[in-house]
Amino acid sequence: MIESLFPNVDWNDMWEATLETLYMTAMSTFFTFVIGLVLGVILFLTAPKQLWANSIVNWLTGAFVNIFRSIPFIILIILLIPFTKYMIGTIRGPNAALPALIIGAAPFYARMVLIALKEIDKGVIEAARSMGASTWTIIRKVLLPESKPALISGITVTAIALVGYTAMAGIIGAGGLGTLAFLDGFQRSRQDVTLMATILILIIVFAIQFIGDRLTVKSDKR
Amino acid sequence: MIELKKLSKVFDTGKGSLTAVDGVELDIAPGEIFGIIGYSGAGKSTLIRLLNGLEKPTSGSVVINGQDITAINSKDLRKARQKVSMIFQHFNLLWSRTVKENIEFPLEIAGVPKEKRAERVLELVELVGLAGRENAYPSQLSGGQKQRVGIARALANNPEVLLCDEATSALDPQTTDSILDLLVDINKRLGLTIVLITHEMHVIRKICHRVAVMEGGRIVELGDVLNVFQAPKENITKRFVAQVTDTEDSQETIKHLRELYPSGVLIKLVFVGDQTEQPILTKLIRKYTVDINIVQGNIAHTQRGAYGTLILQIKGSQPEIDEAIAFLNAEDVQTEVMAND
């Protein structure tokens, strides 16, 4: 039945490509989370009247975030080719996609982190200060736990965007379901391959959404 | 315990400067419950934040237990804050932590080892009457319970001073009273100095030993609660005292009685301490042939004794009325003839 619906699909290739997409998504989400968190916390704490109020650092971080968030992803990949070559040694394969994926998504997530942190009740931060907490303690024990649901729902949205980015990166040879859909499906006019790749991408996206939603709800004790 | 010297705080608002605290001088004794009352914008919020260095003064100094907290580095200031803790109007609990974990937070900051933290949290939960609720999240608690967590959290590191920032303003009257009782209990049991700011005279009356009235960044009146109630000097103080003693209804009644008996004299009596328990009115009526209407009566208990007011209408001939007032004065009751306006 499935064989007759998808006559041209090579299931081994399809499985391989799915793993590559999952690998790229997982790695880039992880690094995006870490870098975005750091950038978001810097943006938050260096804003006026905050604990590290510093207009220069705030401006520079804000400019970096805004620029890289604004460059269309497909152009960013091309712009980053020399950098990728230097970092990874090649511009082909799943690892070569990672720098562009992370640099494209981290600023996006940083903005979400900033929004999440701004939602925190200022009184709670004041209370922590009144107990003698250092800024580092406030970051670890107040800012991050108190914004956890928003941080999780933010990384969920970002991870889903990253699945889309991996498909785009696939077109210029990153591998994964994007490459398969483009080279095997589109260029060789095998509609069934494109369709199957699409179905698998949808399953990945829905799974991420489901897990993200569950974790968000579970972390919210308000 | 706490000495404020020429303390001022000026905010730069962008459109000019705003003097929130203006040359405040204050001495608060150890073990005292000291109230600061004022309307919003009087500078009391800024003043209380100067006491634990959450705000830096523009000039002047804050000396707590011999340590000038305006002159120490940030590390020592953080250490000092563990001994000057604070509770808040909106409780400011971490919603992501349970009752137990919220109370544990200041202990984590102070670097107390885990086993000792658990032990201390248990004591504190008992102390503030939250046994059985340790594992609840703040969202599952009532306002009064949240403030109890706030108090337990503030007491965790055995502070010497407890600052209360409008701690009961978000609570209903009954809960307010139970929280105030808890504060008095803590003050007596632990000998802790309490500084509280409020706009409710009820709070001052119920638990404070001394009170400072703040207006426009300055302390305009300062004294023992009982004295301030008995003889408020400034207009603003009189208005605050009226919050607890007068009611709108009594104003209406007074107006009505004046219309009904334009001949009589309205007189306000103030009793303090033991006088509140004397049958002064009985003596008055037996001795003089005046008629008396009771317009309004009120007895309030402060930490320094009882305080009562009674508004009477006295009817009779002018000499009789004068004699009656002279009698009251001789009994050491403070009298005030209410002007006919």
Polypeptide structure, described:
Chain B: InterPro entries: AAA+_ATPase, ABC_transporter-like_ATP-bd, ABC_transporter-like_CS, ACT-like_dom_sf, MetN_ABC, MetN_ABC_transporter-like, NIL_domain, P-loop_NTPase. The complex is a heterodimer of chains A (222) and B (341). Chain A is an all-alpha fold. Chain A has helices at 2-5, 11-45, 55-70, 73-79, 81-88, 94-118, 122-130, 135-146, 148-171, 176-186, 191-219. Chain A has one domain (21-219): Orthogonal Bundle (MetI-like fold). In chain A, helix 2 packs across helix 9, helix 2 packs across helix 10 (176-186) and helix 5 crosses helix 6. Chain B has 2 domains: 2-243, 3-Layer(aba) Sandwich (Rossmann fold), CATH 3.40.50.300; 247-337, Alpha-Beta Plaits (2-Layer Sandwich), CATH 3.30.70.260. In chain B, the strands form 3 sheets. A 6-stranded mixed beta sheet of chain B has the order 6-7-8-3-9-10, with helices on both faces. A 4-stranded antiparallel beta sheet of chain B has the order 2-1-4-5, with helices on one face. Chain B has helices at 44-50, 74-81, 99-109, 114-127, 143-155, 173-190, 201-207, 225-230, 235-245, 248-260, 280-287, 318-330, and strands spanning 2-12, 17-28, 33-37, 59-64, 67-68, 84-88, 161-165, 193-198, 210-215, 218-224, 265-272, 291-302, 305-315, 334-337. At the A-B interface, helix 7 and helix 8 of A face helix 2, strand 6 and helix 3 of B.
